[in-house]
Amino acid sequence: MLSNYYAIIPAYIRYNKELKFAERLMYGEITALSNKEGYCFASNRYFAELYGVSQSTISRWISHLAELGSLHVEVIRNEKKEITERRIYIVDNPYVQNNQYPYMQNSTYPICKKSKDNIINNNMLDSFFNYIINKEKQIPKEFENLESQILDVLANYEMIFTEEILNYMKAENIEKVKVIIYSLALVVKNNESYLLHKMNREQIINLYDECKLREKENKGTNNEIQSFTNYYYKSLKGQLLKGKGSSFFMSKNANFKNKLSEEDEEGEER
What we know:
- By secondary structure, this protein is mainly alpha-helical.
- Helix content is 47%, strand content 6%.
- The protein has a two-stranded antiparallel ribbon.
- The longest helix is centred in the middle third of the chain and has 19 residues, at 171-189.
């Protein structure tokens, strides 16, 4: 599986003091392995053998990169809920550099343009929207077993509307609701809902409007947005990961984190 593609390690990864040197190197390897399909499907065993460390160490490195918003990990399951594949996507996330603007698709390596599986289409939006307004009885399969969590989040953000109210809304505002509620559902699905306390209703709506402005500005350019919902979700995720305080991660003095650090160091010496 050794890749012949170039690895890319951007400055915000190279000089990120929160990352171990091995984590930075593995990030570069993941960019190289993502070139063909738009995502990396290498297993923990592959990376463990490549770097001479344990699989649990690799798992921690990937989790840490995901916590910092540099990677997005998607787990594919079959009908029996068994894991059949793991996909690791590179997240071109300028928020790590404290950028105040939404996510921009201007990376030199593929993020989601090559991956059809990563594009959110209108049918997906409509199906979920129809479930929320009770036109469909069952929640879409991608959100199965998450109904109560998703509905709680949407209720907290006052994003559940009756058909009567929707009849008085403009088409552009209905589209806004569709994109926002679907993105919030993705936040729940990807186990990121614990970050939602950082943004209120007004902020997530303002972010949508700003993303729409960026879509208009970049239309017809090399940075043209391919999937607006995908773009908005990545921008939302970037804002949630932005400006983390000391409470966001476990204290450096915590015994648990110290134990993990010691295990990482032992693994790197093997």
